[in-house]
Design a protein that fits this description.
Elements (H helix, E strand, L loop, with lengths): L7 E5 L16 H12 L4 E3 L28 H6 L20 H20 L7 H10 L1 H16 L10 H4 L3 H10 L1 H27 L3 E6 L8 H5 L14 E5 L9 E6 L3 H6 L3 H11 L4 E4 L7 E6 L9 E4 L3 H11 L4 E3 L7 H10 L3 E4 L20 E4 L8 H6 L3 H11 L6 H11 L4 E5 H4 L29 H13 L5 H14 L1
Parallel strand pairs: 1-2, 1-12, 2-3, 3-6, 6-9, 10-11, 11-12
Antiparallel strand pairs: 4-5, 4-7, 7-8
Length: 512
């Protein structure tokens, strides 16, 4: 069994959505203020999206690596404190406040990495040399391949993996040796970027732990086809000799999509992974558990059965369900890691065999109040919750609650009012109260709902390629009374764990 989550609450906010002067939220001073705000609201959880270096569409679910961090999250202010960059580097830069303009942010953060690397080579930040060397030794198993992959990709002007020269694509030893020599400086720069990311994130997470705030991370089940993981471990995926997927991931047509969802990710060769004792997965999850306290494991049903779409198909209409490793993988992870701090993303059509694996492992599933308008038997209504679950007003893929409510039919609004026992007065906060008052072990709301924002603040529209992952909260949107309201509601519904309550009293006494 997995240790149960304490009765607690949290807020979903990806770091990119934090405010700040550099076009994108980062791991700098504003992130520390956000953690202090979570603590003031008596929240136990800061839930985030994947932290990796984003690829197609700037989606955190299409990263260039399952192990690396995204340099877009590096804080220029913290790099300045380390003596690695001067404020003159960003003097005159102006970015939008309300959204991330990736077309400007990406080149700025790339240039920032080049600048700090050149300064480090020139002798600045000398106090980091020993730690950097130790980091490279400690993380070499994934870091060396990621840094070389990224340096090669840079040298090819960002060309996607399947279009690389065949000798590099297939990792021929002479070509690899030549690339390591020719691109040595770029390789070291990307290693340094990962060192800086891990350093900034570790400091922020330690600060959060000191405030009683834990981090719930997010692990996509599948890997981007253009990634260091596919390049370094091609035998772990169902690929042809040119590293193109023979089948790709997705989900079949359903009520929401006549064509299904065609994700395009390569699928795992689970038989081959079993021969290695699922070593890649053990390494991946171990790495992430150094960064977060609990992992939300995306598309949990894919570990039991995954929809295999022939690579030539343009939609997900044609495909078949293929068995995955099921319990065998998770039992191996639990043995290797000494536990399984995982939340199963079990949304959508979930079959009894998937539920059996989840329940055998004792993993909490997810409940989303926006999905609960299908009658009194719907599992997403609080009266049908089980304690071992995480309740949400909505997720990063949903409309905001206010946007969702605005699109409901009148009969649906009446039905929601019947469930509440009164007229809906404030849709976002009415659903927050429903989640917080439920038996669910953990209740989480996106910050957009905490701030009662509309669909202008939506984070992602599944199936829409462009315009996602851009939302940022503005300073003027966060009203002081929200902190008090969240604190009072969280306390009222007994969602402050005993140890967190005791620590808060201890800190208050020390301050007095």
């Amino acid at each position: 069994m997995t240790a149960p989550l304490p009765r607690s609450a949290g807020v979903l906010l990806h770091p990119t959505s934090l405010p700040g002067p550099f076009g994108i939220g980062d791991l700098g001073p504003v992130a520390y203020r956000w953690v202090e705000t979570l603590a003031a609201m008596r929240q136990t959880w800061w839930q985030i999206l994947p932290l990796g270096p984003t690829g197609a569409g700037d989606s955190p679910y299409q990263a260039f690596s399952a192990f690396a961090g995204g340099i877009k999250l590096l804080s220029p202010e913290l790099l300045e404190r380390d003596g690695l960059v001067s404020p003159t580097f960003w003097a005159g830069q102006h970015f939008p406040e309300h959204e991330v303009d990736y077309g400007r942010v990406n080149p700025f953060k790339t240039a920032l990495l080049h600048e700090v690397w050149a300064n480090f080579r020139g002798g600045r930040g000398a106090h980091l040399k020993e730690d950097f060397a130790a980091y490279c030794d400690r993380e070499a198993a994934w870091l060396d391949d990621f840094a070389l992959y990224t340096a090669v990709r840079d040298s090819l002007d960002g060309a996607p993996l399947p279009t690389w020269p065949k000798e590099l694509l297939r990792r021929d030893p002479p070509a690899m040796a030549a690339a390591r020599k020719t691109l040595a400086d770029g390789v070291r720069m990307h290693q340094f970027g990962q060192f800086l990311f891990d350093r900034q994130w570790a400091d922020l997470r330690a600060f959060a732990a000191g405030k009683g705030v834990k981090v719930m991370g997010d692990a996509p089940i599948f890997i981007a086809p253009d990634s260091a993981d596919v390049w370094a471990n091609p035998d772990q995926y169902l690929l042809d000799p040119d590293r193109n997927p023979t089948v790709v991931a997705g989900v079949p047509p359903d009520y929401f999509s006549a064509d299904g969802q065609h994700w395009g990710n390569p699928l795992y060769d689970w038989d081959r992974m079993a021969e290695t004792g699922y070593a890649w997965w053990v390494a991946r999850v171990a790495r992430q558990l150094h960064q977060v306290d609990v992992i939300r494991l995306d598309h949990f049903r894919g570990f039991v059965q995954a929809w295999h779409i022939p690579a030539a198909e343009k939609t997900a209409r044609v495909g078949k369900w293929v068995d995955g490793p099921g319990l065998k993988l998770f039992e191996r992870l639990r043995t290797a890691l000494g536990g399984l701090p995982v939340v199963a993303e079990d949304l959508g059509v979930i079959t009894p065999d998937v539920e059996a694996v989840r329940d055998h492992l004792g993993l909490p599933g997810m409940r989303v109040l926006q999905f609960a308008l299908n009658g009194p038997l719907d599992i997403h209504w609080p009266h049908n919750f089980v304690p071992n679950c995480v309740a949400y007003t909505g997720t990063h893929d949903n409309e905001t609650v206010n946007g969702w409510y605005g699109g409901l039919r009148e009969d649906q609004r009446r039905y929601l009012g019947l469930t509440l026992g009164r007229y809906v007065e404030d849709p976002a906060w009415d659903l927050i109260r429903m989640a917080w008052s439920s038996v669910a072990a953990v209740a989480i709301a996106p910050l957009q709902d905490v701030l009662s924002l509309g669909n202008e603040a939506r984070m992602n529209k599944p199936g829409v390629a462009d315009g996602n992952w851009k939302w940022r909260v503005r300073y003027d949107q966060f009203r002081p009374e929200v902190v008090e309201k969240m604190r009072d509601l969280t306390t009222l519904y007994n969602r402050v764990p005993a140890e967190q309550e005791a620590e808060a009293r201890r800190r208050a006494a020390a301050t007095t």
